[in-house]
Fold:
Amino acid sequence: MVLTEALAAIIKPIIKDAVLEAFKASYRPASGGIPDNKTFLTVKQCAQISGLGVSTIRLYLRRRSIPAQKVGRRVLVRRADLEDFLEANPAKAR
Structure:
């Protein structure tokens, strides 16, 4: 029994570290892998970051609730503008 407990005490931290490393390697941030240093976002990226649907983001863009720039056919939103909008419009508890 003493040998089993001694081996368990040695092996447990090793296994714990290996599991944590595997988790960190496979972990994807909630933003869908969009880098934090990216200044402008597409509508799809805005939806991924905010957790809202693409159609909802387009609705807010049409209403001009979220400022955006059009570059060719592409609509781009500044990350800071999206974050400001989300902070100014918190979800209401039921």
User: Anything to note?
Assistant: The mean pLDDT is 87. The helical segments are 2-26, 43-50, 54-62, 79-88.
